[in-house]
Amino acid sequence: MANLLASLVSSADTLQAYGRVLEATQNNVSNASTPGYAKQSIDLYALPFDAQGGTTGGVRAGALRSARNEYAEQAVRHQSTGLGYQQQLADSLTVLQSNFDISGNQGIPQALNSLLQSFSAWGASPDDPSARQTLLQRADALAQAFNQTANSVSSAARDTERQVGETVDQINQLVGQLQGYNHLVLQGNKNDAGLSARIHSALEQLSSLADIQAVFIDDGSVSLTIGGQAPLLIGDQQYPISAALYAPADPPATNPLGTGQMRLQASDGSDIANAGGQLGALVKLRNEVMTSLIGDRYQTGDLNLMAKQFADRVNQLLTEGNTTAGQPGVPIFQYNPDDPTSIASAIKVDTSVTPDQLAAVSVGPPTVSNGVPLALSALAVPTQDADRINGFSYSQFYGQVAGQVGGLLNDSKNNAEVQQSLLTQAKDLRQQYQGVSLDEEATTLMQFQRAYQANAKYLSVLDQLTQTAIDILKT
Amino acid sequence: MPLATVVEQLAAARLDLDRAGELLLSPSPEALDRCSSVLEAAGRRLTECQPRLTEQAGDPETLAEAWRLRRSFRRTEHLLQGAGDFYCNWISLRGAMTGGYTSAGDPAPVLHGHRISLQG
């Protein structure tokens, strides 16, 4: 009777064990498309059978195991951060580049060429009032082209500042969600597959926004840091980050009226240097790329430099000459010398200057009736250092500035494409190694090492062959 | 070799590199084995057409194709590096998990003693 009862209990336990397996399988099926979900399984253990000793055998259900491989999850997040960074650079630089025409049909290069042509036309007919009038109109058009380009870049910089703020808010919001999840985990829901899925989905979203390091603690909670240094979340305590424009007192500003730098701060006030992801790209664009064009407290910016040097040189040549009536020449360009970072955005032509005030006669000796227009025409193809900017003609200098923006855009587009492939690869590896223990699979690792070395050798040869092909074809 | 043939050779090598890149999106050891033969084919094509590249020096169409080839090469190189990093870090982690750290602070090397790997 006792044996029969034991057998019945054993059968009931076995059914219960299979019930739990079925439950885990059902859970896997219902969550097949849940973002961040990883399969779960239950280990089954055979119980000893000894009829005479009274042990009736059967099956016992072990602990619930998740197939999630944290190492592979981390690899996906790493590539997601890289893609977020490159994609943001490509998106923002596409907008920025639209302000830098290199075809010569619009914007600064078109206005500059037109003005240089009007200098030549004036040189051919130095007494022609319409040539003088055209010159003033084209000088005004160039000033406006500088204004428009500089203001568009300033507007893009303000837009980037707004995006930095929004991204910081998004990060704090997602970390807030994870804080709530940690709270649930610490209340004893460590093995909740749905909760784990939500945690990993939020981590993946966070990783494209910034370089976030996630460490899972034994109690099941996740601790987060940003940029490898500043804490974001420890247990159920969140440490929000912030962003603001910053004007440091030290070192002293060379352009006190220039804008400050965008600064990211941890909750304790320390700087976050390398935020990575979309946030890192936005800060780099704002603090490095855009300021190299329109300046800040420590640099003048290429557009301001070009506008200032061109205006100064034209004004200098005009004021060194005399009008045909013997009056000294007057300058045409005006800007605020106290704010070197506002020159391109605010430069203008003095509206009080009339065509007959333009000085064509260079006083010499010898006196040349069209000496000034000829000297101005030489700005197109300079032969002396005074007519150059950093060793280049003005058109070449502008071409370099536009080329740098275009080059950055091209690089970021190519890098984003590669990063997209690397993210796909990392997701595939995550899929492949779900449920694989990192301390196992030695055979796979050995096979991989051998195959990797063979491929690396072929790639090294291909590196030389492709580079040689380009070198030969370029000549 | 006529112009089109050099361009075609470069384009064929680029397609080989793209195929290698596709294989590396799912970088199992088996995929890497297949990738080796694809890369070898790309190398063979480039070696074949290299002596005749000087005839096309300065030709913009051939140079543009060479740049496209270089771009495909870079993508494939990054993908192999990505796969390499994944497995190498895994080996390091496994070393640290099984053997701890060396006196220099590096993960202990992974020992593969007493294991037989059969293939085929």
Task: Please characterize this protein's 3D structure.
In chain A, β7 and β8 (237-238) form a beta hairpin. With 475 residues, chain A is α+β, with helices and mostly antiparallel strands. In chain A, the strands form 6 sheets. Chain A has a 4-stranded antiparallel β-sheet. Chain A is built from 11 helices and 14 strands. Helix content of chain A is 57%, strand content 11%. Chain B is an all-alpha fold. Chain B has helices at residues 3-24, 29-49, 60-99. In chain B, α1 runs antiparallel to α2 and α1 packs parallel to α3. The longest helix of chain B is centred in the middle third of the chain and has 40 residues, at 60-99. The interface between A and B is large, with 46 and 59 residues.
Brief summary of the model shown:
By secondary structure, chain A is of the alpha+beta class.
